[in-house]
């Protein structure tokens, strides 16, 4: 009698079946199956999702964003500026050479509107400014000789001397005397400043598309000598009045001229190069750049000095200048039709339309009453059998009413 074969443990058999199933699934081929579900509400959801996706790609992606174009941002740019005008203070007439700093005509420049002048400064010893911390004193013992305060005006000598006015005393320093607070005189230059004219000459170049353009009209009749900027009638006459720039930035000219500030002139070149070059036009906007609502850092000022000789000794006039700094900022982007982004976005659009099918399948398989019937109809498994042997799929009975009940 033959010996009985040992039985395979149940766990081992299950593991083998799982392994065969996974290996078989690796070589299986899946193909979509089209099932028509007669459900009006589900059909409305499906078509609505498809319509929304189609509208998004047609209107926003292709019309608004123009995603069919190849783009270049940040054009190469050059800016040349020139200021004209005269003004006067209490006892002096000022021309461009004196109130525009620096004079080179770059994209950043300052127009002086108020000054505090400390004249006839010479190297010597004098009282320190009361604005300097620990500068006040009662006796020489309060002043340390040789002490140097980085926020002060000079090197302390160790003496306590009377201040320039009043009964107070401060430590004596070796510096340019008198110091700034001791004898400064304020002068306002902003009386005629709103009528100053500023020529802003700008040219841009997009190297990817080999496209260049400037913001001045090419005319030979002296057009620039008698025009000022107007957004509609004189777009290519980039001559702006300073008062107009400040007004467009939403600022009060008198207050700005007194405390100083920074105004940005933004030139934007957004060009659709599928159109003619005449459709590529600059757009100007103006806004204040410095934080005017922060008292500790609002305003704009700087110092400079003018040196000269008096009886053989070096003398200088120290000027603390308040002004309106103009920053010309150029940016933009250009776009032109290209086949590659067009194909990519079309493929994305066609693929995204399939989201409607995914959403409706999820609703059918999750929320519908006949979700098991739909699952049975949607997922079929076919075994590749020889032609002479009928497969299980051929022998299976179809449910003629299954999907009609969904």
TrEMBL record:
Sugar-bearing residue positions: 195
Keywords on record: ATP-binding, Cell membrane, Disulfide bond, Glycoprotein, Ion channel, Ion transport, Ligand-gated ion channel, Membrane, Nucleotide-binding, Receptor, Transmembrane, Transmembrane helix, Transport
GO terms assigned for molecular function: ATP binding; extracellularly ATP-gated monoatomic cation channel activity; identical protein binding; purinergic nucleotide receptor activity
Location, primary (coarse class): membrane
Reaction equations catalysed: Ca(2+)(in) = Ca(2+)(out); Na(+)(in) = Na(+)(out); K(+)(in) = K(+)(out)
Lipid bilayer topology: Multi-pass membrane protein
Annotated Gene Ontology cellular component terms: apical plasma membrane; neuronal dense core vesicle; postsynapse; receptor complex
Keyword rRNA-binding: no
Cellular compartments annotated: Cell membrane; Membrane
Disulfide bonds: 126-177, 137-160, 143-171, 227-237, 271-280
Residues spanning the membrane: 44-62, 346-368
GO BP of this protein: behavioral response to pain; calcium ion transmembrane transport; detection of hypoxic conditions in blood by carotid body chemoreceptor signaling; neuromuscular junction development; neuromuscular synaptic transmission; peristalsis; response to ATP; response to carbohydrate
Binding, ATP: 82-84, 197, 301-303, 320
Matching PANTHER family: P2X PURINOCEPTOR, P2X PURINOCEPTOR 2
Complex and partners: Homotrimer and heterotrimer; functional P2XRs are organized as homomeric and heteromeric trimers. Homotrimer. Forms heterotrimer with P2RX1. Forms heterotrimer with P2RX6. Forms heterotrimer with P2RX3.
Primary role: ATP-gated nonselective transmembrane cation channel permeable to potassium, sodium and calcium. Activation by extracellular ATP induces a variety of cellular responses, such as excitatory postsynaptic responses in sensory neurons, neuromuscular junctions (NMJ) formation, hearing, perception of taste and peristalsis. In the inner ear, regulates sound transduction and auditory neurotransmission, outer hair cell electromotility, inner ear gap junctions, and K(+) recycling. Mediates synaptic transmission between neurons and from neurons to smooth muscle.
Similarity comment text for this entry: Belongs to the P2X receptor family.
Name of the featured protein: P2X purinoceptor
